[in-house]
Amino acid sequence: MYILEGNIGAGKSTLLRKIKKAGTDIDVVFEPVNTWHQQHTGQSLLGNFYKDIPRWAFSLETYAMACRVKEHLKEQQALNPYRLLERSIYSGHYCFAHNSYQSGGMSAIEWSIYKQWFNFLMHGQCRLPFGFIYLKTDPETCFERVKKRARSGEQNITLKYLKQIDKVHDEFLIHKHEVLPELEMIPVLVLDGNKPFEKCDILFNEYCDQIEDFMHKTHLRTTSKERQISL
Question: How far is CA 15 from the centre of its chain?
């Protein structure tokens, strides 16, 4: 499997919808974002988070991790290796949960508990992806898109928060800062999310070609290594 990562409003869902409509060999799996929007005892978990991050960060991130692990375990059994998932347990940890801790949204105890669960699941349950595709988009562009789409639960997202999330995505995917050793070797394809690929078919086709070429090369390299190990 492959994973599409990026900031809130980066254009991930738009890219996946266009890939699905284009009829390529790539199977797309959208992030279950409605799960965080669901009403729990009359409340939206995501909406509560953006209103009061210190109160709700641990609740949201642990719930999101459980949902993403469940999805990861299901998708890693799929026969088609060219399967592209929107977001992952990895960005949940290295980007959103880590940022909550760094910015004071999680206490040291909560962060310790979260990390223990993450490390357990990474080493015992979830297989590594073949690669990451990082749709890198300027925080200012993301902010304008978030305001324009006016999605439920996102009314309180600030530009400051999107800049923080942009920073931790770069640390995770580009600089590989303090990631698990096995993640350091996972290849990353970076695409410019600021460009109008939604409206420009030529640009979208270029992105599709890059994604397909990246998938074919990395999957071939991974399977070759596995055969060498088995020998």
Answer: 13
Euclidean distance between CA atoms 92 and 4, whole angstroms: 12
Residue partners of 193: CB distance under 8 A and separation at least 6: 6, 10, 11, 135, 136, 137, 141
CB neighbour list of residue 28: distance below 8 Å, 6 or more residues apart: 16, 17, 19, 20, 83, 84, 86
For the annotated catalytic residues, the residue numbers are 86
How many angstroms separate the CA atoms of 190 and 78, rounded? Answer: 25
Alpha-carbon distance values, 130 to 82, 127, 222 (Å)? 9, 9, 7
pTM over 0.85: yes
Domains of the chain (ranges; CATH) run 2-230 (3.40.50.300)
How far apart CA 169 and CA 152 sit, in angstroms, is 24
Number of other residues whose CB lies within 10 A of the CB of residue 95:
25
Structure tokens at 222: 């991974």
Residue-wise pLDDT tens digits, 35-84: 655 655 556 777 788 788 888 889 888 888 888 888 888 888 888 889 99
User: Measured at the alpha carbon of residue 17, what is the angle toward residues 127 and 30, in degrees to the nearest 5?
Assistant: 35
What's the angle, vertex CA 146, arms to CA 142 and CA 148, rounded to 5? Answer: 115
